[in-house]
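Posting here for the record, re: manganese (II) ion.
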Amino acid sequence: MKSYHLTVLPGDGIGPEIMDAALSVLDLVGQDFNVQFDYDEALFGGCSIDKHGVPVTDETLKKCKQSDAVLLGAVGGPKWDDQPHDKKPEAGLLKLREVLGLYANLRPAKIYNALLDASSLRPSVIRKADVMVVRELTGGIYFGQPRGMDEDKAWNTLTYSKHEVERIARTAFELARKRDNRVTSVHKANVLESSQFWRDVVEEVHKEYSDVFLNEMYVDNAAMQLVRDPKQFDVIVTQNLFGDILSDISAMITGSLGMLPSASLGEKHAMYEPVHGTAPEIAGKNKANPLAMIGSVAMMLDYTFDMPEAAAMVYDAISEVLELGFRTEDIATRNTSLVSTTGMRDLILEKCSDKSGTIIEMVRMSYEG
Ligand code: IPM
Ligand code: MN
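Prediction output follows.
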């Protein structure tokens, strides 16, 4: 039996509850597909600050480096807002991204038909929208030096090297080939040298991918186009800060931040986490929506463990449970059935075991000829 080792970082707020739900789903998938997943849990974010005084310890970083993939719940909360900049939970996240070399952040925003009414945009605008934001995650203004502030001024630096732009462009083109074969490179080349450079390097890499359609867009226009007509986009590739902003916009097209998974990939490591935050106001109340965390597990099955059928089983279970009208509080509307975090988990488990029954049956039939 294949066996994989994961580091699990439940984090703060609703993190532990949604992680529990997602791990139950992963356990079931493991049984169905005859793969063993074992977990090593560690403190990360605010809970690590409380215990160790830092958002991430060297020991936790080491664990993450030694595992086949990292699953992260959510970090942060008002309790730690007054910490100095480098001791905030967010600083732990940036450190983890940097140390693991997670340069490619994939944030899919796909509309579930059952949730068409949940968006603040008209159903006709968002129906069939399926956008993948590929955000550069370990460079740009988030990490550039020098940075700092004194009493009279504050400064940050935006730098991109050729290597950094080339590899993220490749990620985007490769992904597009598996989707609708279109990439939009988003930048601000009318103002910034770093963006002119970005544009040119992406065009250069595109020569290796001439079968993929490439277009360019200034970031201000892209923000507007995303809410005007999201269907025009397939893959968007952009720098760290622009990707941070555009992925929140694209998330809202789907109506619920609570639904969206993400993957952060590097050459050697990978981390999967929901896009949403820690929702401290509902933490511990069994109300949180576990679907983004469960979706993140599905992305992990697909990207790290090359188990597309297992991933599809989980995604299908999510759509079907939504089609049946079950909703956690964040996405509930009239005429839907309200369920708790564990209730939603059980529904997904039930759907996945239905499916695995079918899969097992199909395999059996193929043996029997
Ligand atoms: C995100 C978050 C982080 C970011 C914060 C928490 C550091 O907003 O993952 O999008 O800005 O990258
Ligand atoms: Mn963000």
